[in-house]
Amino acid sequence: MWDPRQYLAFDDHRARPFFDLVQRVRAERPRRVVDLGCGPGNLTLTLGERWPDAALEASDSSPEMVAAARARGIDARLVDVREWRPGPDTDVVVTNAVLQWVPGHPELIATWARELPAGAWLAFQVPGNFDAPSHLAIRALAGAEQWRERLAPAGLLEPRAVLDPAGYAQVLTAQGCAVDAWETTYLQRLTGPDPVLEWVTGTALTPVRDVLDDTAWAEFRAQLAPLLREAYPQQPDGATWLPFRRIFVVAQTAH
Hints:
It is built from eleven helices and seven strands. It is of the alpha/beta class. The chain is globular, with a radius of gyration of 19 Å.
């Protein structure tokens, strides 16, 4: 279950890649702008501000996130991104930190590229940090005897498959798109007690929370906390630095 409040605890850090992505979309007067995986809707609102004349379509697979987006006045819908298909007037599609949750998503984005109208824009970013110390620690703990059987449904023992920028470029150029693909490693300054634990609680640990009861969840977090403190030590000024690699792709379909 996604928790909008936990997710927004680091909203500045989570928002920056979104803006770095969307600024490379050069659509001038799109008819329809789609936000797939809109989350709590705080960033969806900025799409409406940039393109005020466009129809704004927003969806998420989490009922909690859809409810949070609707509370902001966004007509968000509950949609599995794997089932979504573009309408004939869809000129911009944005999907921010979503596709890493979708097995086989390179085939999905290729399908979208074929189905989008001529000159449409497809922009997405995914985390590229699945081999980072934070995720290695999560997988190691999830694989321990105490947790292995209980966490098997969470699918944590295999790293999520994302491509590098060249891989995504190859997928989309094969569909005739013009592609701009790159990666950035953000050095995020976090503060507070166990900030990396709080960071991954809002995202990477969501599948763990879904399969554990309250007592087991608290115990798993308690065991993970010292592993993360060791991997990301607090600095003399009280801050903790978290390097975070992200992969960006902006593609335009052929005219």
